[in-house]
Backbone:
């Protein structure tokens, strides 16, 4: 019977060998035969086994690179164990350094007229200090582990393999982010000026920029050049971006990476708030990405907005999570994490609710802004100070003053929520590396898993609806404005 791809394994501990999985041991038959016959029989067996392995390698040639790369990249197990220990240490979020107010960060570029002690900075530093005081009680490893659903093992191993690459010509990891007004940081600001440089360095307030800063300070600084820990970030998020908008950005992204013989290592999808009922577009995006980057780690975020928190398995959110599971992509379910903080009967969550009664801790759950005395605003407000008075997110701890112009306080939460999201994504990336490397105690227990050569034939949304979510990945005809007659204005039409 032909060997199936999923049965081919590369076992790794102190020794590595190519093995096949079999349900029953092969019976042994002992024969008394002349020596010459034994030689003939042995040569025949070697010939058939060699031919069989050659057939397997030819049929599943896409496995060859994985197996070869495994031997080349993982030839020093002691170094891998050190990397595993480092990852295990970094997974302890309680040991991550406190957040530094962005104007106090050593990489902050101070303008000429900068006054670090102005009144708004006194308030901002106090808020940062309060956040640092409670963050380890809110975003625990237990909460993170309950909110994260890991995806494809093959993708995790591919990501780990890229992380372990060494050499002068190794290209950095490539991570792309998509998302909407939340992802670009609407309403996000430790004070009124953060984010005005477009999110460069510590000035960036939105979670993707906080993630990039955290990765640099924790992972790159920890590993240095012993691993491939540098990341090229592709910030593709834009206001009101939904999955249909992402779909129409894919052709240029795919062409860019494939034409340069590069691959996209991680895609962070954060378009749920904008998707509404566009579940077919979300599924179409996932299918196209997996088709063109089969090794990619896709991490899909479920935001902690009230409508998602209160919609556990029904409606849009149910279809969204079903799609994530159907394609075995990683999910960070911030809505579930908010539900656990609000409803769980585990002692740790009960203690938090007693300490902070009637308060949201991870993501604001009340669509209201309030004055300092607790009085709620009676109108929608997008500004910074209402009638000259500071306003805050209602029933949310820590108390955060609104510093930016944006409506919808739950769709556009404060900077503290962005920090929680950034830390959740970083923890997920580290957990993916741990899984991909097979880090278990003091040894490496890893098996290279064969990747299916095709996407699932079935879809979660109606298949015809998914197929209607069409985007042109390779045009048949092309008009090149660079090839024309300057004087006669005769354009050249290139047929592909």
Residues:
């Amino acid at each position: 019977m032909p060997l199936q791809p999923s049965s081919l394994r590369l076992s790794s501990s102190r020794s590595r060998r190519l093995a096949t999985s079999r349900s029953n041991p092969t019976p042994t038959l002992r024969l008394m035969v002349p020596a010459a016959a034994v030689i003939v029989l042995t040569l025949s067996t070697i010939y058939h086994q060699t031919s069989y392995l050659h057939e397997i390698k030819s049929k599943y040639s896409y496995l060859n690179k994985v197996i070869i790369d495994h031997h080349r990249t993982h030839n020093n197990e002691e170094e891998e164990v050190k990397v595993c220990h480092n990852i295990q240490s970094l997974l302890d979020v309680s040991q991550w350094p406190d957040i530094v107010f962005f104007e106090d960060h050593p990489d902050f570029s101070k303008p000429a007229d900068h006054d670090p002690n102005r009144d708004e900075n006194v308030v901002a530093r106090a808020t940062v200090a309060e956040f640092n005081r409670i963050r380890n009680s809110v975003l625990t490893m237990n909460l993170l582990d309950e909110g994260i659903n890991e995806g494809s093992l093959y993708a995790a191993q591919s990501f780990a393999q890229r992380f372990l690459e060494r050499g002068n010509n190794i290209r950095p990891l490539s991570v792309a982010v998509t998302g909407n007004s939340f992802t670009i940081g609407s309403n996000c600001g430790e004070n009124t000026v953060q984010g005005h440089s477009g999110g460069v360095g510590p000035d960036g307030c939105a979670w993707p920029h906080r993630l990039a800063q955290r990765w640099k300070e924790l992972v790159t600084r920890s590993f240095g050049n012993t691993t491939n820990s540098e990341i090229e970030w592709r910030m593709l998020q834009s206001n009101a971006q939904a999955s249909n908008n992402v779909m129409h950005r894919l052709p240029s992204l795919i062409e860019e990476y494939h034409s340069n013989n590069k691959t996209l290592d991680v895609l962070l999808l954060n378009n749920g708030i904008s998707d509404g009922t566009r579940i077919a577009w979300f599924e179409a995006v996932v299918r196209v990405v997996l088709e063109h980057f089969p090794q990619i780690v896709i991490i899909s975020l479920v935001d902690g907005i009230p409508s998602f928190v209160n919609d556990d398995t029904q409606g849009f959110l149910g279809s969204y999570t079903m799609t994530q599971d159907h394609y075995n992509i990683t999910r960070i379910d911030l809505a579930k994490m908010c539900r656990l903080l609000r409803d769980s009967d585990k002692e740790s969550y009960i203690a938090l609710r007693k300490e902070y009664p009637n308060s949201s801790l991870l993501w604001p759950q009340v669509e209201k802004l309030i004055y300092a005395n607790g009085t709620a605003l009676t109108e929608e407000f997008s500004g910074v100070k209402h009638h000259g008075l500071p306003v805050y997110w209602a029933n949310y701890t820590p108390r955060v003053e609104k510093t930016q112009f944006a409506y919808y306080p739950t769709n556009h939460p404060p900077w503290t929520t962005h920090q929680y999201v950034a830390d959740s994504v970083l923890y997920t990336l580290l957990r993916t590396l741990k899984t991909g490397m097979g880090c278990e105690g003091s040894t490496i227990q890893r098996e290279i898993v064969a990747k299916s050569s095709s996407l699932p034939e079935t879809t979660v949304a109606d298949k015809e609806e998914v197929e209607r979510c069409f985007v042109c990945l390779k045009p048949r005809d092309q008009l090149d404005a660079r090839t024309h007659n300057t004087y006669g204005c005769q354009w050249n039409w290139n047929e592909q």
User: Anything to note?
Assistant: The CA atoms of residues 459 and 466 lie 8 Å apart. Confidence is low (pLDDT under 50) at residues 1-74. The two ends are 43 Å apart (CA to CA). The longest helix spans residues 35-59.
